[in-house]
Amino acid sequence: MRGEVDTTQDPAGRVVVTLDLDGVTDKAGLMDRCAGELELPDWFGRNWDALADSLSDPSGWPEGSEERGLLLVVRGWRGYAEARPAEWQVAEEVFAEATDRGPGLFVTLGPGGSSEAPAGRAG
Questions:
Q1: How far apart are CA 79 and CA 108, in angstroms?
Q2: In what helix (H) or strand (E) does residue 17 lie, and over which residues does it extend?
């Protein structure tokens, strides 16, 4: 998983990876972004089940994550949630399912707005 890896920002000591969904407004865009930013395996089928499987597989996590745990922070998600609320609800369920399946994995929603938002505006 490439994303933005940060090994210092989690109080629990987990490796932190940020998935930025800024500009994503549909399932195909989400799957493409996850495949690229998280360097998902070749077998990733760009469907909901494959996403849950890929996220919960520690063999694809950054170095040190299997021992310390992995915190995946999803940011820039609001555009997708507003454009396709039913799809976004499924995405949230997939993130929750991956968390339940993956020992040491925790997925959380970070700021929902664009990473390009002017200073002082909440995400």
A1: 17
A2: strand 15-20
